[in-house]
Amino acid sequence: MKRIEAIIRPGRLPFVKEALEELGYPGMTIAEVKGHGKQRGIVEQWRGRQYKVEYLPKIWLLIVVDDAHAQQVIDAIVDNAYTGEIGDGKIFVSEVTDVIRVRTRERGEAAI
Amino acid sequence: MTRTLAWARRAAGAAAGALAALALVSAAAAQEPTAEEQLASLAGALDTAWLLVTAFLVFFMQLGFAMVEAGFVRAKNVANILMKNILDCAMGGLAFFAVGWGLAYGVSGDSAGPFAGDGQFFLRGFDNWPSWIFQFAFAATAATIVSGAVAERTKFSAYLVYSAVITAFIYPVVVHWAWDSHGWLSAFRDDPIGANGYIDFAGSGVVHAVGGTAALVGAVMVGPRIGKFGPGRKVNVIPGHNITLAVLGMFVLWFGWYGFNPGSTLGLSGGLADLAAKVAVTTTLAAAAGGVAAALLTRALTGRYDLGLTVNGVLGGLVGITAGCAVVDAWAAIVIGAIGAGVVIGGVWLLDQLRVDDPVGAVSVHGFAGIWGVLAVGLFASEAGIAQAYGESDRYGLLLGGGAEQLGIQALGIAAIVAWTAVTAFVLFGALKLTIGLRVRPEEEERGLDVDEHGIEAYPDFGSSAQGLFVPVAHPGGAD
Questions:
Q1: DSSP string spanning B357-412?
Q2: B472 touching chain A per CB within 8 A
Q3: What is the ipTM of this complex?
Q4: How far is B85 from chain A (nearest CA, A)?
Q5: Is A49 within 8 Å of B351 (Cβ atoms)?
Q6: Is the pTM of this model over 0.90?
Q7: I want to staple B108 with a disulfide (CB 3.0 to 4.6 A). Which of B119, B209, B266, B460 is the partner?
Q8: Which domains are seen in chain A, by residue range?
């Protein structure tokens, strides 16, 4: 099982969500987060004086899938989060050793 | 020289209307009123109605001030600035009732002195209601200017005392000087200084420069917000929390200005309706020119069309035209408004260099542009404009060939007004600093004034407070 964490633009979330639902993954967890990458924020202006906004709003998206479908989920996120501009985000993939559904106590892939 | 009858009653207000109505009542008891009596009664009622409606428009500017100031401060200080806006208006009403009117226009014997009125305190022996409500609305405007300049760090109790003193004492004395028919600067004296006296139709100097000067003294004495100025010459950026509110507030102020300036004809009968309409046009053109000038100027200086400074620029145009709105031509209103915006933007930059922290630009908008507006009368007043509003005169704007006398009188007037306000405000804020203190504790300032002073958050369930303080970046040709 793979844990897929994606940091994406807030504006791309609806498209990513739609693509994942079409793939058959309606379940996901998201959080509104702030951060910056190499570009280190953007420059804004208040009453004539420019300043750096160091942390930009992003969406942090968590989804756990079985190994066989990990690549197509990653592709769906990349395709739909992509704009080509700096700040499109990153995806982190890691192994998951176990999953437990609290309500039924199912374990492993059955619990995903 | 002649002055129109209606103008001679800036203080007397609708007394003529009241008299006509009284005459009507007594006449009705005896016999049917004549057609002339009925017409006079109608004209008086029209003038009174104009004064009331424009007073209410000027009062509506309180809303504009509250919105601009709330938008320009951080979320953690919104409740505090709103509370100050309520209380300077409310304290101002009581103070203007008790003392303010008396010092501005009050008469106890035959005539008041040149420096202050001396009667009708607590409105004893007084029934000039339309004038009181109109003048109160102006006093409340002068008072509310300061709250923005000292926002986000000034103690609420100190601000309360300040707002009572400016509406009871500092502002009314200036009104007496400039607008009462006994005032030493007044254009409505029998023997004014020079040919025309000091011309400040709706109060670039009397209202705005008074508020702006007090705001400057307050901002200097209370000191900058924590973090506004870094080491060396560094000026940090503290963005306001809601530019939408600020822009809505600007439009409310612009709208209210249609009471402030046109209402200062104090009536509509006897040709004053035409003057009021002209004033509405010059007011519009100056505001428009201020907005365009600020947008283009900030684009040239910073590379972007700056919204916050354009808000200030529109207001700078409005403040600039307030003195001369009745006596300048339409083209001159555009020049005055555009320069007013430039004065504001230059003022914002200058105060940053001097390390004076004015979160909303009140000192630049009302102080610097107010001074500019007074001087602009001496440069741009037209012969026909002065004749229409103040009576025939061969002294008018320097740039229109009317000689330097009017400019000199305008400079004398505004110097006196700024000096009076600066000295009295310095004594006031100094006394507050030594007694109850001007400033909240640093911990309270960092937490926000809302929670400690008022036990309330402006947005308790709406997001978290932003960082709210930013290190500036260098930019080509920018304000640095």
A1: --TT-HIIIIIIHHHHHHHHHHHH--HHHHHHHH---S---GGGTS-SHHHHHHHH
A2: yes
A3: 0.70
A4: 22
A5: no
A6: no
A7: B119
A8: 2-111 (3.30.70.120)
